[in-house]
Structure formats: C-alpha cells, structure tokens
Design goal:
mainly alpha
Length: 365
C-alpha cells in the first residue's frame, strides 16, 4: 500500500492497517498516532519525525529491503577484499626473510615485520583492537593508528632509530628496523580494522553465511595478489588476518566490550536504508514480537514504549536513551529482572509493566 493511500484512509478515520505492505514508503513528519500496523511489513519505511503515539507495531517486520541488503553486503565484501590485499602486502614484507639472499638489511626488515605482526596479532586477540592501537603507539607504532599524524609518524621513526642505535645496530640497519616497525604496524592495523568492520557488518546485515562470503572475498583477493607476485607468505598472512577478523567480528557483535566502537560502526552501516524512527514520537507505542533488525531509533521519544519479545533489538541504532544498555534490552525483551543489577543507569521513561523485578537493584538509577 502506498503512503498516500494510508494517509488518505487515516484522515478519513481508518486506523486498522494490519498486515499491509509498506516497504520503502515515507511517512516523514506525518500524524499516525493510534494506528494499527501490527504484522505489517515496514522494511525500509521512513517514519522520521512522525507522531506515532500509541501506535501498534506488534509483530511488524522492520529492517532492510532486499535490494539494500544486496548493496550493503557487496560493499562489505569489497571491503573484505581490500583487507585481503592490504594484508597480503604484509606477507610480501615477511617473505624478505626467505628471498633476500645475502642482503642483511632486507632480512632484518623481513624479520622485524614478522615480529611486529605477531605481536600485534597477540595484543588484538587478547585485548582487542583499541588496546592494540595503544600498544602500537606506545611501541613507536604510531603509524598503525588510524588517527596518527605525520608528526607522530616522524616521532615514532626517530624513537625506533634511537633504540636501534643504542642496541648496537648501524645507522642503515636502524633505519631499516624503524621503517619495518612503522610499515608493518600500519599494514597489520589497517588490515585488522578493515577486515573486522567488514566481517562484523556482514554479520549485522545478514547472517553467518554473509560473513563467510566476506571471509571468502578476503581470501580470494589475497590469493590473487599472492599469485601475481608468487608469494606464499602473502597468502598465508592474509588468511591469518581473515581468520582473526572473523573471530573478532563475531565477538564484537556478541557484545564484546573491548571494541564497542566497531560494533557501533557495523550496526550503523547495516542500518543504512533500513526502517527509520529517527526523532519519531513513539510514546506508548507497542512493538511486542516485532523484528527490529537494522532499525534507527536515535533521538526517538520512547517513553513507556513496549519492547516485549522483540527480535534483534540488539541490532538497532539505539541512541543515548535506555536502549543503549545491553542488560536493559534483555530486561525489556524477556520481562525477567529478578536478582539483577541495574544500578546507576538513566532509565527515564522506561516501560516495566508486568516485569519481574523481585530483589532487583536500582541504586542510584
């Protein structure tokens, strides 16, 4: 049903729009309070700034239209391919260990690159990408950070040269080591970030199958580069990064607190073209049993809104109100808060009707 027809019927007093197909329609800034959109298909529907007070969205299906799913998945797969290409260059640098002949400087460059990549791998796996960035900067790896400036890069090189000279290396070797540290860190960190974001986005948009395709794109790109330059280490390096990114991407979307910013980016990316309630008034609206994956709820008024048994509420863009808290989302979905701790949270306007709160703690909330 077209938006114009819905608005025409609404103006005539009709409120029952159950099970209608509203995919891709726009109700931006419109008055639809009290309407019944239960079991409606609202994928890609625009409700920005709309008045939806008391509106019924029970078992409605929000999120992305199929064409947007395809577009966004292609972008995430291309990003994965880019990550594979970047990481394969790291493998090329490592290959200098085996193919540099008697050239000591190139061997030092290769070994330094290998050590840096392994160290960064270990830190990323154990502490997360954010901590790896700090580790890189502290170890003269400032170029690995996405926010590193030219001056930071120069300082990092200068520190690394000074350390190398103090350790008894020649000036040429010191420069080689410093360059290897900076370049390897940049390659490893850039590859890790792009790959994890791509994998996490694929998870957020579709499923594990989509992320598997993203992984395959990274591997395929790396294989193409490795074949072109006849370097098995390039392929091995890219494969290792792809495996690490798949592992981290899955953990990020599962709520790993170490890299929340990556999860935020992935969900925001997955919501492009999805259902939007941006700045809409959802006071007393009912989303019981609704599918809300890839939905934008930023700056929406969600006072006394019902979220019981909603699906994929963890994949929405929640904004800064009570939906930002993972434990609160679970409380709203399940209605079970017995013996749980909800201390020092901002829960203004939350709907806890018929929720089990026996022995729950709300100190300072």
């Amino acid at each position: 049903m077209k938006a114009e027809e819905v608005l025409k019927q609404y103006a005539a007093g009709e409120r029952d729009f159950q099970r209608v197909n509203l995919r891709g329609q726009s109700f931006r800034g419109k008055e639809l309070s009290g309407a019944d959109f239960s079991e409606a298909d609202i994928r890609g529907t625009n409700f920005k700034n709309a008045n939806l007070t008391g509106t019924n969205f029970c078992k409605a299906k929000a999120g992305l239209q199929k064409r947007w799913v395809i577009v966004l998945l292609l972008v995430s797969w291309i990003t994965s391919g880019l990550s594979g290409i970047i990481s394969s260059f790291g493998g090329v640098l490592v290959a200098l260990v085996f193919y540099s002949g008697s050239n000591v400087e190139l061997q030092v460059f290769g070994w330094t690159t290998l050590v840096v990549i392994i160290a960064l791998f270990a830190v990323i796996q154990r502490l997360g990408i954010t901590s790896a960035s700090a580790f890189a900067s502290a170890s003269a790896f400032a170029s690995a950070s996405a926010f590193a400036s030219a001056s930071a890069f120069a300082i990092a090189i200068a520190i690394a040269i000074a350390v190398a000279l103090a350790s008894g290396f020649t000036v040429a070797s010191a420069v080689v080591i410093a360059s290897a540290i900076a370049l390897a860190s940049a390659i490893a960190f850039a590859s890790a970030v792009t790959s994890v974001i791509a994998i996490a986005s694929a998870f957020a948009i579709a499923s594990a199958i989509a992320s598997a395709f993203a992984f395959a794109f990274a591997i395929a790109s790396a294989f193409a580069i490795a074949s072109a330059i006849a370097s098995a280490s390039a392929f091995a390096s890219a494969s290792a990064f792809a495996l690490l990114a798949t592992y981290l991407g899955w953990h990020v979307l599962k709520g790993d607190p170490r890299d929340v910013w990556i999860r935020t980016i992935a969900i925001a990316f997955a919501a492009i073209g999805g259902t939007s309630f941006y700045k809409a008034d959802l006071t007393n609206a009912d989303f019981t049993g609704a599918i809300l994956k890839s939905t934008d709820l930023r700056e929406a008024t969600i006072t006394r809104t019902c979220w019981r048994e909603t699906i994929k509420l963890d994949r929405v863009r929640p904004g800064k109100k009570y939906l930002q808290y993972e434990n609160i989302r679970q409380l709203l979905i399940t209605g079970e808060g017995q013996d749980k701790n909800f201390d020092r949270l901002d829960l203004r306007g939350i709907n806890l009707k018929e929720t089990n709160l026996q022995d729950a703690s709300f100190s300072g909330t």
